[in-house]
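Record Transposase Tc1-like domain-containing protein, 109 aa.
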Amino acid sequence: MDARALFAERPRKPKKTKRIKDEIARLVAGGPLCDHQSLESLANATAVPKTTLWRHLKSGWLRRAVSYVTPTLTMEHKEHRLRYCLMHVHRPIGVSGFKMDHISTPNKR
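=>
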């Protein structure tokens, strides 16, 4: 008896799926954004099994995406940032020669 035959993998046919990729893409894109928080909530919203979604994630056909909006800064936070920046500006007092010390205007005759 050949030992390699015992450990060789049997050739398997790919399992037929119930839904095609276009249908899954339409279901995922059509659902509300709040239902895309997790794989489980996406599976519940689209009625596509979680394992099917996971398989498409692993194959690279579906991908995760994070969308967020950066909050606007409050006036108090802007003041704190400006104070911090000014603390780290090293400029000797009383020494001229900096370009920003003088504003040049064209001479009019």
